[in-house]
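User: Here's a structure from my thesis project, written as structure tokens. My advisor, Dr. K., wants to see whether a designed sequence matches the one we expressed. Can you design one independently, without my sequence as a hint?
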């Protein structure tokens, strides 16, 4: 072996610094195998439905009972006490009035039909004759008025014709007002009241029935009947007519068509039947000419005045 010389030793390379060792990585825990029994349940897939559209969770029985009870309380609070506006109250009153009027009308119609249903054939024929007579009378009055109008329109001297019509009309109004005597065909109705059961309302019903049948002038005993005639009962018996006491027998002297007046008093449930039910007796005597000679003094109205046209 050859000995190394110092020059050879100086040519050797310098030693490099030793690299520092890197820190050891942290140990990674290995997954422990899970047993089949302890495996965690797989998470359910999230529903794609909107949470707002999903129905409410089922309630328990006690919660449902509480909810129903609170619903009843809210419904009761909404209905009572009722909160009605003024318009609703007016409509309710009108509907109640309409229903009451309809009920009364139906009841009166049924009562009238029940009376006619039990009437005899001759009574029904008499009622039909009375209705026909009223219709003919109204048609005759209409024809007379149309004739008077035609005379006024076609007369060459309209002033004279107007005066003549005025005088004629004044006479007719005097008969109706009771300021002049009246005569013509009619009937005499005598009401005997031995038991004293006839009252003022019965005489008033008789008067109304005669007027409805076309009576033009009426006199009861010695009292002329006019538009403002009134009847009152007397405590000691009898009736007062326009403040004058009238005693039985009550005698109605009536100017009108006897064929209309007589059936009107004899209809089923009419004046004659009502008087007979109170132990009174009504006698009707048709006559070709009767005289109504009682008159009344005309009174000037205190408050009423002719209205401007």
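Assistant: Designed independently from the structure alone:
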């Amino acid at each position: 072996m050859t000995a190394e010389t110092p020059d050879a030793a100086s040519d050797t390379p310098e030693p490099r610094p030793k690299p520092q060792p890197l820190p050891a990585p942290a140990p990674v825990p290995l997954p422990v195998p899970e047993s089949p029994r302890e495996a965690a349940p797989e998470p359910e897939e999230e529903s794609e439905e909107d949470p707002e559209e999903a129905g409410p969770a089922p309630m328990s029985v006690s919660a449902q009972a509480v909810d129903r009870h609170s619903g009843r309380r809210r419904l009761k609070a909404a209905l009572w006490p009722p909160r009605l506006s003024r318009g609703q109250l007016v409509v309710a009153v009108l509907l109640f009035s309409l229903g009451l009027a309809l009920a009364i009308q139906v009841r009166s119609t049924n009562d009238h039909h029940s009376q006619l249903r039990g009437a005899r054939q001759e009574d029904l024929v008499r009622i039909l004759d009375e209705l026909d007579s009223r219709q003919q009378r109204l048609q005759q009055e209409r024809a007379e008025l149309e004739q008077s109008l035609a005379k006024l329109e076609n007369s060459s001297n309209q002033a004279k014709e107007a005066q003549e019509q005025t005088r004629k009309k004044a006479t007719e109004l005097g008969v109706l007002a009771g300021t002049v005597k009246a005569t013509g065909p009619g009937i005499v109705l005598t009401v005997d009241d031995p038991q004293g059961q006839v009252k003022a309302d019965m005489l008033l019903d008789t008067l109304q029935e005669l007027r409805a049948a076309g009576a033009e002038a009426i006199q009861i005993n010695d009292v002329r009947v006019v538009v403002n005639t009134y009847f009152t009962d007397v405590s000691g018996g009898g009736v007062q007519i326009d403040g004058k006491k009238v005693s039985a027998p009550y005698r109605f002297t009536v100017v009108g068509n006897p064929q209309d007046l007589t059936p009107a008093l004899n209809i089923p449930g009419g004046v004659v039947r009502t008087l007979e039910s109170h132990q009174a007796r009504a006698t009707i005597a048709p006559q070709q000419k009767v005289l109504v000679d009682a008159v009344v003094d005309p009174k000037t109205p205190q408050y009423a005045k002719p209205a401007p046209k």
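When you compare it with your expressed construct, this may help: Residues 1-10 have pLDDT under 50 and may be disordered.
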